[in-house]
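ok, trying the design again with the full structure, not the truncated one.
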């Protein structure tokens, strides 16, 4: 009889995950709309020159094509895997929004001037959020491209893909340095902020699902 009187949850886990997904998509709207205004404001700010031990030893090269071919192929591959793990997918999306907010905060607090010898990077996706749809050179601290791959490495289940993502994050870090579009400090800081965003996504997911984060 006790078992018969046990209340049955009105909504299954998928309902809670859907609620989290809808919350994430709604929260993304003001952040995405704010990006062009933020970059316009950032471009007008004077920036600092950080200590740089490496770039002067690297001849600048344009590696945009292999960089983006690798980056976006891995993003698509990781998303295809995460679709089969809805909770990790939603947590990853929430973490990515936090990553965007962290980048906006750090770029505002630590505004840097572009490195010498910079070769403009034509990002087929991100440049649509830049003023005039042109390459932007002051979105520096920290590297969004490296941080995105690190975040995906945290998000995917333990597998060979996770190792591949970490390895390719190193390759992308090398590529943005070779192209002189980031300072060394931008690249070194990216994994730390990706981890902070992933942990923050766990806290948000815990609140959405009304349980302790993992």
């Amino acid at each position: 009889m006790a078992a018969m009187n046990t209340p049955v949850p009105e909504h299954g886990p998928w309902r809670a995950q859907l609620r989290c997904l809808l919350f994430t998509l709604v929260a993304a709207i003001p952040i995405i709309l704010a990006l062009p205004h933020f970059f316009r404001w950032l471009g007008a700010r004077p920036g600092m020159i950080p200590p740089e031990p490496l770039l002067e030893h690297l001849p600048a090269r344009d590696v945009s094509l292999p960089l983006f071919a690798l980056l976006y192929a891995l993003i698509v591959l990781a998303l295809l895997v995460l679709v089969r793990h809805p909770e990790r997918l939603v947590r990853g999306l929430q973490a990515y929004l936090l990553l965007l907010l962290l980048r906006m905060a750090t770029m505002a607090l630590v505004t840097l001037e572009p490195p010498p010898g910079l070769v403009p990077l034509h990002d087929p996706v991100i440049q649509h959020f830049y003023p005039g749809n042109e390459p932007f050179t002051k979105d520096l601290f920290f590297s969004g491209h490296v941080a995105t791959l690190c975040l995906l490495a945290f998000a995917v289940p333990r597998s060979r893909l996770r190792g591949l993502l970490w390895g390719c994050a190193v390759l992308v870090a090398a590529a943005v340095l070779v192209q002189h579009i980031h300072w060394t400090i931008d690249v070194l800081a990216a994994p730390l902020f990706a981890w902070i965003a992933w942990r923050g996504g766990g806290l948000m997911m815990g609140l959405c699902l009304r349980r302790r984060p993992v």
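Keeping the full-length input from now on. Helices lie at 13-43, 64-82, 86-109, 144-155, 160-178, 184-209.
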